[in-house]
Write a structure and sequence with these properties.
Radius of gyration: 27 Å
CATH topology of the largest domain: Beta-Lactamase
Number of strands: 10
CATH class of the largest domain: Alpha Beta
Distance between the termini: 42 Å
Amino acid sequence: MADKPERKNYELTVLNQIAEALNRSVDLDEAVQATLAQVAHLLDVQAGWVWLLDEESNAPYLAANQALPPALANKPSRMEGGCYCLDSFRDGDLEGAANVNVIECTRLHGLVDGTDGLRYHASIPLYVHGKKLGVLNVASTDWRELSDDDLRLLYTVGDLLGIAIERARLYEKSVQLGAVEERNRLAREIHDTLAQSISAVALQLESADALLEEKAADKAHFAVQKALQLTRENIEEIRRSVLDLRAAPLEGKRLAEALAAMIDNLQAQWNLTINYSVAGGNTPLPVRVEAGLYRIAQEALTNVWRHAGAELAQVSLVVTPERAQLVVADNGRGFDAEQVFGERFGLIGLNERTRLLGGVLRLESEVGQGTRVQVTIPLQGETL
């Protein structure tokens, strides 16, 4: 890049490629991951990662990563909480191209094994209309001093990514609003048609039962009583379904918070100790994934309470940009795992919920050795 025209052509090429990557999708995860991959390739760096600030809590979460060193990739807890670059960004010390600096990574500080020789990274602040969005970090084992042109180019990349993030979030909100409206429409439809129809059937059966009782038709009486019982149960099930449609099970909470509240609730009801751990809990997940994992945890813990005879259960949630993993384990009586899906309806339901989310369920159990249910859901289009 010896002369200015050549440098300008290079910058335009870089920005054009990144703009094309961002314009291919309105999905937030895809936009961030695509930009990170482009920046890593064009700057010839070994690794990179992107922090975003949650819109509601302002807490940072890992939104994307590229070739994280094993010391960080294999220990998700090391990518939790604040660090020097994030703290500087939130304090307003990374504003402007002059502050796209190469700094020592505090998450790798003091580590010897598994760092792949990485120690420093450049931090690019992400803003849109003055609103703080997050930080893009790119790391290399052999850092040169960044020129003014490099700083300006990285800052422009940050601007492009910031605009794409805001666009993706606005799109996601519009989709969620449409889903809520559709859920409420279905709730009204079920209530106004099917529930009322079954109520009418129950009323007719009650009348028939009274008439049959006068004639002492015992067998008919028993059959009608059974029909009444099933009808009432169906009405209750429909009412539960309507409530589920009208209000998402997480009640506006993030999955990690909703699980904590549910576990506190269940411990108060049951004679069971439940230990809970979480990593990556600030990471936003698609609504269907959050709701699905919440239901899976709820069903798995109900199985522990009803069938395991356990004194202790453990629930762990780990969310990375690539996947969400939920584990529910207990120290109960266990069972023969090879027979489970043919005989236990609750675990068939767990498997079905996992499959609908595109995930994988792994079940481990032995008689007398407790049970471990692990559900892994791919994110960003990854397959397992």
